[in-house]
Amino acid sequence: QVQLVESGGGLVQAGGSLRLSCAASGRTFSSYAMGWFRQAPGKEREFVAAISRGGGTTNYEDSVKGRFTISRDNAKNTVYLQMNSLKPEDTAVYYCAQRNTIYMSRFGHEYDYWGQGTQVTVSL
Q1: Would you write out the chain's pLDDT as a tens digit for each of its 124 residues?
Q2: 4, 22, 39, 88, 100 from 122: Cα distances, Å
Q3: Which of 37, 54, 105, 120 has the lowest CB atom count within 10 Å?
Q4: How far is residue 25's CA from residue 17's CA, in Å, rounded to a whole number?
Q5: Three-state secondary structure call for residue 23
């Protein structure tokens, strides 16, 4: 069974940075595309970023382009989300997810495995 565990969330001031990590276990990590999503209170789950199986191709939501960077280290079975220039509107629970295919997607229903999330809070 696939298990995804996020870490690295916390409280940060506007303009600051955080790096989230997602450690995967249970199957061959390097064969599958990965994604990050977030959900703020009272809002629907939102796509943030996705990365191809080898890490050479990425896709970002417009609101985070130029500020966030998704990457992966297949030797460590880990995907990362580096978040810079954080804004209060970035406050949310952040989830990592894994597909059952090599192809990237920005749609949550196309992902098969999910972590339990890590809270990111950006203060003024």
Answers
A1: 899 999 999 999 999 999 999 999 988 888 899 999 999 999 999 999 999 999 999 999 999 999 999 999 999 999 999 999 999 999 999 999 999 999 999 999 999 999 999 999 999 9
A2: 24, 20, 14, 5, 33
A3: 54
A4: 27
A5: strand
